[in-house]
Amino acid sequence: MPVNAEKEISTLWRNLHNAQSEICKTFYRWREVAIEVAGPDVKPLDIAMKAAEMMGKDLGKNLLPRLNWLKGEEAFILNLGRALAGMWVNEGGVAFAEKGENEGEAFVKCTRCPWPTAAKEFGVPMEEVALTRERLFQTILGDANVFFNINMKIEMLKAIPRGEGMYLFRLYKEN
Amino acid sequence: MAKLLFEWDYSSYPGAKAYPNLFKPIQIGNLAVPNRIKYAATEENLNDHNGFITDADVAYMRSRAEGVVGGLCFMQGVYMDEKRQGQGYVGQAACWDDKYIEGLKKIADAIHGEKAIAGFQLMDCGRVGAVEVDSGHGPSTVPQRLRIFKPMYEMTNAEVKEMVQQHIDAARRGVEAGFDIIEISGIVGYLISNFLSSYTNRRTDEYGGDIRGRCQSMVEIIQGVKEVCGPDIPVGIRLCSEELLDDVKGNTPEESMETYKIAEEAGADYISCTLGWQESIYPVISRDIPQGNWLHLAKRAKENVNIPIQMAYRLFTPDKPNKAIGDGELDIWEMCRSMIADPSMPKKVLEGREDEIRHCVACNLCLARLFRDAPMTCYINPLCAHEHDENFYPKPVEEDDKKEVMIIGAGPAGMECAYVAAQRGHEVHIYDIREELGGTLLEAAHSPYGDEELLTCPRYQKKMCEMAGVEFHLGTEVTDELIQDELPDTVVIATGPVYSKIQGKGGDRENVVNILDVMSGKAEVGENVVVWGNRKPGIGVALYLAKQGKKVTIVGKEKTAGFDINPSFKWRYMIFLRQNGVMAYNDCDIEEITDNEVLVKTYDGYRLPVKCDTVVVSEREANENFKNVVQAEGIEFFVIGDALVPRNLSSAVHDGYRIGLRI
Questions:
Q1: ipTM of this predicted complex?
Q2: Residues of A6-36 as b/e, b for ≥16 C-beta within 10 angstroms?
Q3: Which of A80, A140, A149, A151 best probes binding to B when mutated, by most B CB atoms within 10 angstroms?
Q4: Considering the entire predicted model, what is its pTM?
Q5: Which residues in chain B land under pLDDT 50?
Q6: Cβ atoms A124, A28 nearer than 8 A
Q7: Extended strands (E) in B461-596
Q8: Are the Cβ atoms of B247 and A3 closer than 8 angstroms?
Q9: What CA dihedral angle connects B451, B453, B458 and B464, to 10 degrees?
């Protein structure tokens, strides 16, 4: 078979990464548009946080058909963590979920994230990058919480844009 | 003394002897019902978009009323709120004002005209409603799992009470319109079921909480409707015996049975036993579910309550409900899809004409269309939803216009056309190179997951052809010379498709085989198979081979595998493919075939080798055979079914029927 596997895979790999990088850039391009349209009285951080909320709401809807309670609470929480990590992976991150030490707890970790790099290119403050990620995840949980009649919370313990080497989110059930 | 609306005596009919339990009377409330047959309320989107009844709906219902031979015939559920949050279908009938009574009366009269019992259903679609407005209403604001449904709005306590009153008022209008029995719909995600379910009801007022609280609105509706209807009008309710929502913390089966008991306590005169919600992840009515699969739920319902239990759900033939009724596990046999496919189904059972029944093939096209705001249609019954249109009925031809018709191909298109044309008075000859009737359905029926049910279609058509006097010429290959010798007035080309040649290198190798040879066991197939074509036939053969333990990969040009499967059934097939480890490369081509590999090329030029020892061709093209000779001889001709454009069984049947009307 006349297939040069290395060439095929490397081309695919390059194109995938280009597409992933465009996700971040497109977001920041739209951020600039929104800032300009909103005018000088609106803080860019408020715009970014609102965008994170709207995106989170929609991403959360995508999760609903895929999550289920059949394997019980612990499996549900870990799967929810995996779903959040999976979104990050789609964007070009290296992310995974782990079961926590306590019941009703999981951790979402990201050791490589493409967003800070893109943010730098557009002059976006690093703290905004961290806060929008946290808000995005919090909003994603909103619909899932109501849908499954559960009170899940997520808090950001570490963030790459804060210079902490990795993102660390604690996903937990609040009683 | 129970009230008897119409006298029926079934004693002289063969069906009453073969299925005695189906044709014995039963009392529901104070109403005597002559048999155990019910056409269950089914939406059909045939009414106008303001909820007024149309002639199409009246005619549709009249034909079903004739079919139940004195039994229960329910019109579709009506929505009852002026705000239209309860409206789940664009053509759903409305009943929020007295102005609708006149139209509803036409349906009641049509049903009575066939000496059947007219049933009226109250159906606020709740969570799956709001088809024409921005938000649905329900007990709580639980987000929708499926994006096609509207966001939910939590009803206030006052609005719940108003909703209860709307049911009562609508029931009163139904009685004024002349209906004999009232039914409340509390199933599959409609409003009452939303109140009953722990999944969707998070209320803390008297309409929420434990199962009693969640049943409170249902109880008030039953009691209020009973009161307004009086003692002679029975009031029943449709309730889920199992919601199948355990993945989202829905009611347990025990809680569901509790809802039955509470409904009985509230005064319900019967319960129609259903299962599953539109949001359930389990299949309930698709073809892969065996007939009679759910009868144990009716039996359990009967163990929990003392009022009559009715059930539909994969009961397409009379034997199972007849036995279940005889065994005390069921009281009334409900039908929806089987009477969409053949409105006269129970009548034919009664008259001993079971071989004349056009059986539903459980494709769910009818449902798929309703959810997409299209009028009802049936995959295999071309007359469905056209009962009001005289142009859809075979009309006899004048003596001078009678023709000799040659139909080439005894598949579903050819046979459908043959009997319709013959019924009209034409002399019809149907030819096929095979010895057996059915065309490529004979092979398609070998696919797993219940596809053998597809053969009910050619069986019906064969009977119709025999009754209409169609002459069969089986085992006869039609050639240009035969056409020139016979010189018929009309030729109908119903040969089925031709199978595409693979254009890539190696497309003519010996390890490239045809789907029909594979499905009929004539072709040898290796362990690693690539199926060329990602439409229905490709998926059917892929599953057939995967079930034999082969590693199967589908390669096809369509952007998604099975794009031609109707949306209400496609999700099942996607699961079957996953369960059987079938990989699909969509939007792809085959660039090259060798002894042990296929080179797949994606739409954007990437190439990947797939291990393969046999390639099965399932891609089809229109069949151009015979056109030249019939044109040259000046013979009128038609091309139908897959010979015209490769599609599906439904298109074949509908093509055949329409051309049968035109010749």
A1: 0.83
A2: eebeeeeeeeeeeeebeebeebbeebeeeee
A3: A149
A4: 0.93
A5: none
A6: yes
A7: 471-474, 490-493, 498-499, 512-514, 528-532, 551-555, 583-585, 588-593
A8: no
A9: -160
